[in-house]
Write a structure and sequence with these properties.
Belongs to the TRAFAC class myosin-kinesin ATPase superfamily. Myosin family. By secondary structure, the chain is α+β, with helices and mostly antiparallel strands. It has 25 helices and 17 strands.
């Protein structure tokens, strides 16, 4: 869509909805072949689930419905099912409830079904073909089926005496009323959605002190010029809207440019541009404009046709330089007699077909439909029709025509735009292939003209295409000049900007204002941007190098500090350990065990190896203190124990080093309490028999044979023999060996 979008500060959140609603509602019942203007219908039919379509009494085939039949075959690259889900999700995100979303699609379904309502004449009466479709519409709008039928076939009229009568429709009037009802449903739905969104996004409890004054941005989306093979009432209104806004936009642009140049002290070159006020007057002038002629024809008593209206325009506008018809240009065969007229718009000539102008301009909705919708049990639908609460006797004023409503909306919009601060975004609809297409110069000029860009281009070419404050310009391009990087030493930012411009040789393409630099051609900016893009990687690498060096030095200082703290802490722990050792072993020389019972403090990690050496020295000193107190007579036994300790170290855990040497353990009551008496008797017998003088050793032992079988035995060693005894048989002698053998 060719559109112009204007953003306005400090603007109310709603734009005149009558303008927007009219642009769309008029296309509900009449679409151009091959176009899909109302994607909501197609998304519902092609993207809705089978359950949703069944509940709405619809089928997923647009060709089955009158209002979508023309666009059913149009090729589209959009995925209707995914788009339908996206719209549903977006409505929920905005804040619409599930009931409101369901009501929206119910109304759309009712509009589609209304288009399929057909009438037939039976004498003077008119009947609806098929009652099922009326029942479906009644269900979707939450109304009574009889009331729907009555609203489609009859019209309630109040006479001058206050009497209310019902007037039956002709088949043509019934079709007109059906289409008007469908368009009104779409119009009210559109306006309700807009007002609902505005209410949701409106700042609650607005306070200029807290929220500031410039907190509102209004978006105005305006359709571009429309020129079709058959241009009707809708194209006439849309092109009039563009004519009305074109002059405002050009005046605002020229005014803004002139004011800025005057503020900055820049010489302004006067621009001559086409003043399209004459075309605006042609359409909207009182008593002489086309809209006034249409309204006069609609209000006239009697049978007034589109042809009669065209004759009236030919008569009243015959001398207008921007109006012509076949009657005024008989040789122009591109127009037909009593059908076409042509307006010379600022963007080009547009030929309009007068057929249907009067019907579309009347666009009257019978009050019966308003009361029908107001009495709906659906709260959303009831909210859309507040004027339906008036009775037929209370409605006396004739409603304004569509063209007058549209003109009033345009006038209100222009008045509002004139006092705001606009910014413009020009949008061009891409072709269906979504790929570049080469046009000739003439076609490009037409494209630019239809968008209203010619005057904008002229204004921009006559002035300076780019302007920027000195501080921001310097901040962006100071790296391109050796005198301004990294910081300049000049008296002002303007002098620094002049140094940049002079170094690049752009003095003839710029102008210096009080606070801004003005650049005439884009080539200057392109050159600066290219040089800046070349220097940016170098500067980035330089900054990375400096930053990495700073980080490395910071890490180095931190590591040095850490090692210094660690060294001091280790020295403190070593000293503390020695202080604790000195405290614990201060009186070991006077202790009975010479400090053997004193527990050594846990050494720090740095003294682990040194601690073992210290412990070993202490043990050797302790052993020396013990040994030097042993009498010489006991030294032989001590040495034997040391030899035994050396031999049995790691082999036997408990071998008696902690007790005195007893020799004869089997005769000792403490070691053998139950068998000691028997062993004493046997040892005496053997002593008498073999004549040994003393027992060297006696004790229990375990014999293991070559089959790894063990048996308990007793061993008796004397100064002459070694005896193997059976302890279980009263120490019976099993074997005796001479000691010398």
């Amino acid at each position: 869509m060719n559109s112009e979008t204007a953003y306005h500060k400090n603007q109310s959140r709603t734009v005149p909805e009558g303008l927007l609603c009219f642009l769309f509602k008029s296309r509900v019942v009449q679409q151009h072949k091959g176009e899909r203007n109302f994607h909501s219908f197609y998304q519902l039919l092609l993207g809705g689930s089978d359950e949703i379509l069944k509940s709405f009494h619809l089928e997923n085939e647009p060709a089955l419905y009158t209002y979508t039949r023309e666009g059913a075959a149009a090729a589209t690259s959009n995925n209707d099912r995914s788009n339908h889900k996206a719209v549903m999700s977006a409505l929920e995100v905005i804040g619409f409830s599930k009931e409101e979303i369901s009501s929206i699609y119910q109304i759309l379904a009712a509009i589609l079904l209304l288009g399929n309502v057909e009438f037939e004449s039976e004498g003077e009466s008119v009947q609806i073909l098929g009652q099922d479709i009326v029942n479906h519409i009644s269900e979707l709008t939450a109304t009574d089926p009889d009331c729907v039928t009555k609203g489609l076939l009859y019209r309630t009229v109040a006479t001058g005496g206050g009497e209310v009568i019902e007037k039956g429709h002709t088949e043509k009037d019934a079709c007109f009323g059906r289409d008007a009802f469908a368009k009104a449903l779409y119009e009210r739905l559109f306006g309700w959605i807009v007002s609902r969104i505005n209410g949701i996004i409106e700042v609650k409890n607005y306070n200029p002190v807290l929220h500031g004054k410039n907190t509102v941005i209004g978006v105005l989306d305006i359709y571009g010029f429309e020129i079709f093979d058959n241009n009707s009432f809708e194209q006439f209104c849309i092109n009039y809207c563009n004519e009305k806004l074109q002059q405002l936009f050009i005046e605002l642009i020229l005014q803004q440019e002139q004011e800025e140049y005057q503020r900055e002290g820049i010489t302004w070159q006067h621009i001559d541009y086409f003043n399209n006020q004459i075309i605006v007057d042609l359409v909207e002038q009182q008593h002489k404009g086309i809209i006034s002629i249409l309204d006069e024809a609609c209000l006239s008593v009697g049978k007034v046709t589109d042809t009669v209206c065209l004759d009236s325009m030919d008569t009243k506008l015959a001398q207008h330089p921007h109006y012509t018809s076949r009657k005024h240009s008989p040789t122009d065969k591109t127009m037909d007699f009593q059908k076409h007229f042509r307006i010379r718009h600022y963007a080009g000539d547009v030929t309009y077909s007068v057929e249907g102008f009067l019907d579309k301009n009347k666009d009257l909705l019978f009050q019966d439909f308003k009361r029908l919708m107001y009495n709906s049990s659906n709260p959303v639908l009831k909210e859309m029709w507040p004027d339906g609460q008036l009775s037929i006797t209370e409605v006396t004023k004739r409603p304004q025509t569509a063209a007058t409503l549209f003109k009033n909306s345009i006038v209100a919009l222009v008045d509002k735009l004139a006092c705001k601060e606009p910014y413009y975004v020009r949008c061009i609809k891409p072709n269906e292939m979504k790929s570049p297409v080469l046009f000739d110069d003439a076609r490009c000029q037409h494209q630019v003209a239809y968008l209203g860009l010619l005057e904008n281009v002229m204004v921009r070419r006559a002035g300076f295409a780019y302007r920027q404050q000195y501080a921001r310009f310097l901040q962006r391009y100071k790296m391109t000049c050796e005198y301004t990087w990294p910081n300049h030493l000049m008296t002002s930012d303007r002098d620094a900007v002049e140094a940049i411009i002079t170094q690049h040789g752009f003095q003839g393409d710029v102008a210096y204002g009080h606070t801004k630099l003005f650049v005439r051609t884009p080539r200057t900016l392109f050159t600066l941007e290219q040089e800046r893009a070349t220097l940016i990687p170098i500067l980035v690498l330089f900054l990375q190098k400096v930053w990495r060096g700073a980080l490395a030095r910071l890490r180095c200082r931190r590591m040095r500090a850490i090692y210094t703290i660690m060294g001091c802490y280790k020295r403190y722990k070593v000293k503390a350990h020695f202080w604790e050792v000195e405290r614990r072993f201060a009186g070991v020389r006077t202790m009975p065990d010479y400090g053997k019972s004193v527990e050594w403090p846990a050494p720090p990690a740095a003294l682990a190896q040194f601690h073992s050496i210290t412990t070993m020295l202490h043990r050797r000193w302790w052993a020396r203190q013990i040994v030097k107190n042993i009498p010489p007579s006991e030294m032989l036994e001590v040495r034997a124990k040391v030899a035994a300790l050396t031999s049995l170290s790691g082999e036997r855990k408990h071998w008696g080093i902690g007790r005195a040497w007893e020799r004869d353990y089997l005769s000792n009551v403490r070691d053998s309490p139950q068998t000691s008496s028997a062993f004493i008797r046997v040892s005496k017998e053997l002593k008498n028999k073999d004549g040994y003088s003393q027992v060297v050793f006696s004790g229990f032992c375990r014999k293991v044979n070559r089959f790894n079988k063990s048996t308990d035995r007793a061993l008796l060693v004397t100064d002459k023999y070694v005896y193997k005894l059976e302890p279980k048989k009263q120490y019976k002698v099993l074997k005796r060996l001479p000691l010398d053998s």
